Each structure stands twice: as structure tokens, then as C-alpha cells.
User: What shape does this take?
Amino acid sequence: MTFWTDPINFIAVWLRGLLTGWGLGVDLANILLALLGIIILIVFAMVLDIILVWIERKVVARFQNRLGPNRIGPFGIFQPFADIVKLVIKEDITPDGADKVVYNIAPVLAATAVIVLWAILPLASTIYGVDLNVALLYLVAAGALGTLSIVMAGWASNNKYALLGAFRMVATMISFEIPMVVVLLIPTIITGTMSVKGITEFQGGGGVWIFILSPLAAVIFIISAIAELGRAPFDLNEAESEIVAGFHIEYTGMKFGWFYASELLHSFTFGGFIAILFFGGYNFFGLEKYPLLGVLIFLAKALFFYWVIMWVKYSMPRIRIDHMLAFCWKFLTPLSFVLLIVTALLNKLLATSNFYLLGMFLANAGIAWATIEILRAYARRQRNPENATQPPPPYREVPEGGDPTPALNLSKGSNPLLGAEIPLPPKCGGSQ
Amino acid sequence: MTPDQIIFILTAALIISSALMVVTTRNLIHAALWLVAALFGVAILYAVLNAGFFVVVQVVVYIGAIAILFIFAVMLTRREMRDRGPQLRKNWWLAALLGMLAFSGLAFLLINQADINRSAAVIPAGLDTLGALGAALVSPDLYLLPFEVASILLLAALIGAVYLAATRK
Assistant: This one.
């Protein structure tokens, strides 16, 4: 182990030797080193977050044929620092009637729910926070904390738009958690472990990416991850054109900044999880032997999938909430269950066969083909006017014999509000 | 005191005080949020006991599903989040008496356990506790029957919920 291939562990071993040399107990030295590691990891994630703001703004600008920030520093790279200064010195407003404690805890919890995910991200074969054997469930649990923060923000703001945003977020999260959890079981079945590090190691050293074994699972995971992040086309929780800004409508200054920063970091982290679970994580043709290169490979893959999430966000219109829930419950959930059953069966049947890889891939292709055929047949049936099912009933039942609601009469005298003669303001400037 | 004991005492204080706040606060949403804190304290206790699987399941199921549904249901159904009625029933002393009796009975039983002072067994490094739990849940001479009975109970509840919620044709 030298400094240039594995700097983090090199420094850790050196520091541990230094601390115990000073007469500290081994346990105490380990605790101090663990604390130092936590602080470094969080600082790394937050500094990365600052750069992500710049990346996000640059990428969305290119999607919309603009230039993006380009004034401060080369390519506008110092723009986020100016943004931070602005956010910090803005007035901090707590709305009237807000639940102060809950209102102030919510942004902290939103950021916490993201940062705790970094504990299980293996950045390289020797650089990781902790190798949990229940890491995939931990991922789901952190998502639960994120939901809680949004519900708290929406409720404590004392604002109906914020509350609507929180309701929509809960509906989305509860629905899309199901296909996500089911799809997380597929890498678990294939690799035989729930540890994120174990899943990465399975795909390295001659192993294949799980994306090749189960491409459908990767696609379903990306879709449900985007829904869990609450980004377009699933950004109903902050739909600007309907409920202004949703759950964070009342937040100003750095409190809003925390929601914004945690959303970006959450997207990047999920990009990292897509890379780890389905695209080999830090593995890249044997280069992962050098942990420093492993970190760079992992960050590059995570950035690529972060870009994919942005690509979807800036190309797709927002989906209506009933369409979104129907898409989840009637399409994604059954599909992921079928995929799970087929994967579990084939994984046992083909375990010793030479055709494991081919069989898994063909099974996925077959399920995808059958899904498309079923959808096509359904669409054809719907388009045929003879077989079309009844359209859904209108929101208000219209009784036989017409609509009982009288037509709106705007003539004078018919409406107590409209009928009154509104006194015109006295003419002014008549004697000009 | 060992570090484990200090963590246990702090966690127990967190759980008990949050649980007290759940039943004494008049704001229903605050009660639900204090419940989340109490459930989180239980998750910390599992972590102290090296039961990693139970920690995440506690957070996923109790905080992620049950507490969120509580909050959701309260926010959807109540206009006024503040409970104005009396907080004690007429026969509160009976409940208090029964609670004290149950507590003292359990404490008596616990103190008379032979191995009350035994510390938790050290789990050897590399032991696959999660795999052992999974195998125990599906092996016929361990917990297969209770596991399947619980599954059927939950399935019945699911079907019942769908039946109740479905619109009649």
C-alpha cells in the first residue's frame, strides 16, 4: 500500500500509528479516526454538492439551448459560491402560524436523509463508510426519512400549497416504493447478498454487470428512483405551474438552500446507486486495483447516471397524478413482480448451466417483448370504437334530464354579488 | 459504566420521554412525530444489540409506513389539529393501577431471572446473521409455520382492505 494508490487508508494507518504512539488507547484512536472519516465524507459530499449546482445549471442550459452561468470564473464555475453567499444573507422568514420547531427541523432532516446514504456507498474497493449486510434495506429506510421531512415541511408551513405538495409526495413515495423494493431484490437474488460492496465485488474481476443479466430491472429501478427523487416527470410535489413550489414554498434563504442542495445530492447519490447495482460500481476493466482510480471511475459513472436523470427531467412533461399512480400500480408493480419470479426461478434452474448469462438476458428480453405486445393489444382495443371500454365517469354525476345546476346568469339583478351597482370612482382630472 | 450502558440509558430516556409526549401533547401531528422519535429510539436499541436487520426494518416499517400513514390520515381527516377534549377518562386510576401491576410483575420476573447480569454474547466477526435469520424463517423445524401463518394473516388483511375499498358495481 503506497500513498499514490490508496491515499485514504495510507493516511489512516499513519494517523493510527501516530495517535497510539502518543499514548492513546487503540479503541480511542479508532473512534477518533472514525469521527474524522465521517467528517471528511460529509465534507466531500457537500463540496461535491456545490459543484453539482453548477453542473445542473450548465446541463439544463444546454438542453434549453442557452449558455447557463458564464460570468464568474471560467465557464461560470464560481457561480454556486455567489449563490451560497446570496442564500446565506437572505432574510430568514418563518411564516405566521407555522409550527416553528417542525418547520426548522424539516430541512435538516431532508439533508440528513441524503447524507446517511453516503455511509454505504463504496467509493472504491478500500474506501467506503461501512459494509452493511442489509445495505439495500438501509437505502429504503433512508428514503422513509426523506418522505418524513417533506411531510413535516408541508404541514408546518401553514400553507395549503405546501400541504398539497406533501400529500402528493406521500402518494408517490408509498406507490413507487413497491416496484423499487421488488427490483432491489433482483441484484440480491443474483449475487446472494444485500451488501452494496458485495454486489459491486460480484460484478468485478471477470463478473458481468447486472445490467446485462437483468436490463429490465435496471430500467424499472431508474424509473422508480426518479419518482422517489420527486424529479420531472414525477415532480408533482413541487409542480411550479400548479402549486407554485409545493412543500418548500414558504422556505427562504439557506433553509430553502438545504432542500435544493439535498435534492441535487439525492439525484447524484441515486445515480451512484444505479451505477453500483447494475453497472459495476467502481469496477472498470481491472483499473479498480488502484483505489484512487476506482473513486474516479465511480464518480464518472455516478455523474453519467445523474446526467441521465437530468436528461429525463428536462425532456419530459409532467405526468398527471392519476396517470402516474396508474402507471405505478397497473404497470410497474405487476411487471416487477413477474420479473422477480422469473429471475428467482432461472437463477436456481440455470445456476450450474453454461447458458446462465444468455438465459437471463433472453428471459428479460422475452418479458419486455410480451409487455410491449400486451400494451399494443390494449391500445389497439382502446382505439377500436366498438370494443372501447366506457370512459371513466365524470367527477360529478349528471342526472338524467340534464344538468340541474342553473346556467350562470351574468345579467344585472340576477346575482346578489354582480347585481349591485358598483359605484364608479369619481371622475378625476376632468378639469384638465 | 460501560459505553453500552450509557447508550442504553440515554436511549431509554429518549424512548420514555417521547412516549410520554405522545400521550400528553394536545397537537395530533406532534403526537405522531413524537411517536416517530420513540420508534427511532427502539431502532437504536436494536443497533446496540447488533441486530442490523431489525434496525432497518423498524425504520422502514414503523417510521416509513405506519407513522407516515398516521400523519397522512390525521391531516386528511381532521380540520383542527388540536384535541380539545379532556385528556383523562373517569376511570383513569384503574388503568394506572393495572399498568403499575403489570410493570411491577414484569420487573419482579426479570430481577429473578438467573442470568439477568449476563452481558450479550459477542458475535464472532464474519457470522452471517442475516443469512441465518433467513434460513430459520423457512426451515420446517424452526419458524416456517409461524412465518406462513403470519403471511396468510397479512394476505387476508390485504384482500379485505381491497374488498372494502373497491367500488361496488
Remarks:
- Chain A touches chain B at residues 99, 102, 132-134, 137-138, 140-141, 143-145, 147-148, 151-152, 155, 163, 166-167, 170, 174, 177, 194 (CB under 8 Å).
- Chain A has two domains: 1-72, 90-334.
- The mean pLDDT of chain A is 82.
